[in-house]
Structures
1.
Amino acid sequence: MFGNTLMKMMEDVEKNRAKDLGMSVEDYRNMLREKEKQRKAEEERYLNSEQYIYDMKKKEEEELREQQDILHDMFQQPIAETVNINKTNLRKIIRWTTSRYNDYRKEQIVNLVLEMINRCENGFFEYICGTYSDDIKNKKAKNYGFSQHIAILDGKIRWIDGYKCEYQKVYELKF
């Protein structure tokens, strides 16, 4: 029923537009088909053009440069503590709440971080865990949303808790 009503409305719109242009409904539909063919051909020409390829490469280079700038900035932050890399120490420094909104459990995050450390590829990855409370029993305790990053650059490894936040804490991870 709704489909029929929608079709009727579309036909009325087509009739009105065709009438405004001084042509029949069939001619109007043919004109629309031709315009769509031209648009698709133009789009395909652009997607295959040197300009599109150049634009995409430029965009990728800008994104890579931006990520490199962020990574270098992460390593400029002052180190609060140096920690040996093992599961126990990672569990201590990773703040993670149990929440139905989180995709992973804390143990899975620890394993993912260890995998990234073992790969030792330059880059960073962000782990986000909704909100965190310093003390869930005390209603006056500070609650805040936060993100944590693992950053690796030239074999140096940092765990950044709350990057560029007032409560930021940077850990240098060592083997």
2.
Amino acid sequence: MEQVRFIFWELLKILGVSFLSLLAVKGVASLKVSENHVLVSRLARARVFLYAVVLAMAVFGAWNFGYDIAAEVYYRSSLSDTQHTSAAKNYLNALQAVQLRPGALRYWQALESAKFALGQWASVVNDAPAMERVAGRELDEVDSYRVAVSLYYLGRYDEGLRITERLIRQNRLYLPPLILEGHILIAQKQYGEAERRLVSVLNVLPTDQLAVEGLAHAYFLEGNRRQALKVLEDTSRLPFPVQARQRFEALKGLYGQ
């Protein structure tokens, strides 16, 4: 749908500029004066100037459309690269799109997603104010969550908590901030608070791997090894994928030592 909308607006702009250029050319061509040689000479020079103005407008319009299309091509390439090629190429394509059209929020979102995949946490955080200026508002929950995770990896826990608390207030059904908040509280050694957050998640979504691992880890760090093992053992009754089960078995081996 987004691609159809982009094509529609670009075609509309091209048709608009073409129509205005045609009207301008016809208007210049229709200029006439009497047989006064002085006026005829002046009109000839004026026509040359006006044609040059029309040509400049057409060239500028074509240049502008070219930038729009090039930016969109880079943007689309960055999305396809996410699935088919390297994260580095994805990043370069998204960066080109932003450089060509820095006022397009979706290009910034593609760039931040690529930076996040590459672990460029500081860059994701530093770009947040620029994204807010482009958006003209606070970042949405997905973009804000990406910034909060980056702050967590940077060890800036209090800043990350401010974002997760805002996201939780705005939408209690959006679970990722609640899970992240649990992990931040574990890092701050607030194990009881972390356990309450993660239990509330598992009451809604008992098959969330990050919540399970976080809860078990909180119990273990608190010194409650038995409860940590119980959390992992209870997963046997739930439909987790093979990789998650392998991870749980590895943790049981670690906590059971």
3.
Amino acid sequence: MGDDAGLPAPASRDSQAGSQAGNLWISSNRGLSKFNLQTATFRNYGPEDGLQSYEFNTGAYFKNERGEMFFGGINGLNVFHPDSVQDNPHLPAVVLTGFKKFDRPADLGQNPAAVEEIRLRYSESVFSFQFAALEYTHPAKNRYAYKMEGFEKEWIYCGARREVRYTHLDPGAYTFRVKASNNDGVWNEEGLAIRVIISPPFWAAWRFRALAALAILGALGGSIRYLELRKVRRKITQLERERELERERARISRDMHDEVGASLSRISILSNLAQSGALPPEEVQNSLAQISRTAAEVVDEMSEIIWALNPKNDALDNLAAYLRQYASQYFQPAAVRCRFQFPEMIPALKLSAEARRNLFLAVKEALHNVQKHSGASEVRLGLAIKGGQLEIEIQDNGKGFCPESLNRPGNGLVNMRKRMEEIEGTFTLESREGGGTLITIRLDLEKCAKQ
């Protein structure tokens, strides 16, 4: 026999006496104990069961012929018949008596004893249960055990304590269980069961997570699509630049062939004639003069091509300055007064080389027609920006003509219209006999902007 069988500790076995019921009664300094010889377990008694005290005197025990037991202690004598001492078989019911949130009583909306389920928000992270066993034989000897299924695996024996506190449980569904024993240690294993549901925060709810997952997938898909589109746009831009480069090369080749090539061919023909000896001396001199003029024209044409190709000249204000310089120099030897009508501030908008080249050649052709055909004494070169469009006017006070009377337009007018069509611009001509001529060319600046 020892403490592991239920004998209270620390205790000294002072006296013992047998009984006819198969039990052994033992007194100690921790009360009176009944040892069941069949189950090898103890049932302990104390002052709350009617004993004079916990402490008994050594050797102070006696059993008479009627089977009554006598045990002497420091405060008197205890006399009883073992058969009259019966264990309490009643299974104590367990009820909920209160519920707290953050150590403050919570309103459950009904009698706590009738509560079967408690729902809590995630923010209600501190809560406690209060409970009691409906056993009144010796309430002070009632004992309790509890566990939160889903959080605790084993029963936690808490003695006579009737309140349990929990903090910061994860969201989810739990079952809080409490069982109790009566004064004789008889446990009600079924006890009390209350379902506890702790709702997750909004960011942990499955709907939010599903939406967040969809948002992430959408963002990921959008990012992938954006990257793919950006890759495609870059490829398109690269192809457009390559195509633009090819067009620029073709245009330069065409200009070199049409303008410089024709002039060089003329120089070659005149040179061969002068060297052949078949021409009279005066015609040889005339051929040499033509060679000199043509060579000067070639130099001018090459200068114009190089100017159009130079990226430093890709701004609109540079084009305006170049047109003004060219017109001044072109009409300087002639008896034609050149007047300019330009705005004080011209924005430095970027223009493609093709747009600059065709604009310049169209204006050049118009100025050439003024000097060659109009008989004008004054010419006005105007430049303005109206509603996102560049507008250039070349107006003279010459003899003019009736456009309807022309059997066919000259190469100059055809070339001007063709050059403006190449850069998606427009060309208009207004003239009447004796009233001079007005040529207007317009260009959408956004369409011809340098990429």
